[in-house]
Amino acid sequence: MQPTGSGGTNPVMKVIGGLMKTGGLILHGEQEFTYHQPIVAGETLQATGRISDHYAKTARAGRR
User: Fold this and answer.
1) pTM of the entire structure?
2) 33 Cβ partners below 8 Å, 6+ apart?
3) What pLDDT was estimated at residue 4?
């Protein structure tokens, strides 16, 4: 979720939104986080999304 007034667009959601508009299904296969310092309860975290790979898979019913 983007913070209110962030002014930016989430690059991951931009790609997923485009795929879903054309009937594509999304399978989230793996996600990784790197923390640069300890997290303290009550802090607000900021993140940067990056798509490192994507591919199409054939479903069991033979549909793509």
Assistant:
1) 0.35
2) 47
3) 58
C-alpha to C-alpha distances, 46 to 14, 15, 33, 34, 56, nearest whole angstrom: 18, 20, 11, 12, 30
pLDDT, one tens digit per residue, over 4-49 is: 555 566 777 777 777 778 777 666 677 788 888 999 999 998 887 7
Closest to 16 (Cα-Cα) out of 6, 8, 28: 28
DSSP letter (8 states) at residue 19: H
**Tally of residues, the chain:** 64
DSSP 42: T
DSSP state of 37: S
The residue among 60, 50, 57, 3 whose CA lies nearest residue 25 is 57
